[in-house]
Amino acid sequence: MKHTTVAAYAAPAPGAPLEKTTIARRAPGAHDVVIDIHYAGICHSDIHMVRGHWGEKRYPIVPGHEIAGVVAEVGPGVTRHAVGDRVGVGCLVDSCRECENCRAGLEQYCTGELGMVGTYAATGRDGQPTQGGYSRRIVVDENYVLSIPDALPLDAAAPLLCAGITLYSPLAHWKAGPGQKVAVVGLGGLGHLGVKIAHAMGAEVTVLSQSLRKRADGLRLGADHYHATADPATFRELAGRFDLILNTVSADLDLDAYLGLLRTDGTLVQLGLPETPYALSAFALLRGRRSLAGSAMGGIPETQEMLDFCARHGITAEIELIPADYVNEAYERVLASDVRYRFVIDAATI
Ligand code: NAP
Ligand code: ZN
Ligand code: ZN
């Protein structure tokens, strides 16, 4: 069988605006699922990646790893999904499947030779570059395709595939729940889902945002408290307060100041991926036996668990649905923290 050609939006070079193009999708193999993409979320990582913040990549790049759609075709060996199923694809489309992490369902931390294969700007098992969700169709191995529960609308569910799991995974790992004080730093795409999920888990949730501009939204989404980080009084008032701080900020931050907000044995989990390294004082960690940790998305079983959790709790992203030709403006608005709270591309407009 031959590959198919599909319409897509791609960055032709680092920093260049995205433009309409076509890309090839492989003919489905025995275990492949062909997905008609309905919606693709815009993650801040898409911007870091196409602008070369994380090092050189092969161009053109079709970004997009928050994909929701419907199965159009399946290979003869597929058992997990059927034509017509509502499905999603997140940040990874393959991994070695044999290493300790893959066997534990932590495919995002694959240590095998293949490594985690990113949904775009990576190299697949076949040696070809992967291309992401800003396109009409994608072909993915069935083991890396998630089922989207009927209770979740596809457009507002798309951002769960990256932003949702990226917050769910550390909240679950550090056991956020009743009696725990959780702070979410940055009320953007990741942060707003962190507020909803932490609230649904029963934790007491505080938003730490640059200003009080989005305070009403934060409280409506489930936050119990909301503070401006531009106000130095915030850091005095909240000193030693939190069990868990989830930092979703995409830019450099004074981590020492945030570590000071942890109670004894508290953990600050780094989720944002700024291009420059942080400065850190050892004293900020020693005081109160604090931990600084990182967390990347989530594995396939946990991503399914997160989707099911969101369906049970009625959690979806707050989205602004856009036509594909708005993508470059949307990027500028994300960079200006002017998004409430996730742009989602209507793939029918590609
Ligand atoms: P986003 O929608 O742009 O949200 C980031 C938020 O950070 C903004 O809304 C803003 O919140 C705050 N912020 C931005 N610039 C700031 C600055 N200079 N100083 C202080 N706060 C600032 O981005 P996102 O899609 O949520 O992604 C956030 C970061 O996580 C990105 O770096 C992305 O690459 C990374 N990421 C990591 C993973 C992972 O697996 N760990 C997964 C996905 C994304 P306020 O307006 O409330 O201050
Ligand atoms: Zn992402
Ligand atoms: Zn592996």
Automatic annotation (TrEMBL):
SMART domains: PKS_ER (SM00829). Its cofactor is Zn(2+). Its EC number is 1.1.1.2. Residues 15-345 form the Enoyl reductase (ER) domain. One of its GO terms (molecular function) is oxidoreductase activity. Transmembrane segments: none annotated. It comes from the Bacteria. InterPro entries: ADH-like_C (IPR013149), ADH-like_N (IPR013154), ADH_Zn_CS (IPR002328), CAD-like (IPR047109), ER (IPR020843), GroES-like_sf (IPR011032), NAD(P)-bd_dom_sf (IPR036291). Pfam families: ADH_N, ADH_zinc_N. It catalyses: a primary alcohol + NADP(+) = an aldehyde + NADPH + H(+). Keywords: Metal-binding, Oxidoreductase, Zinc. PANTHER family: ALDEHYDE REDUCTASE. Belongs to the zinc-containing alcohol dehydrogenase family. This is alcohol dehydrogenase (NADP(+)).
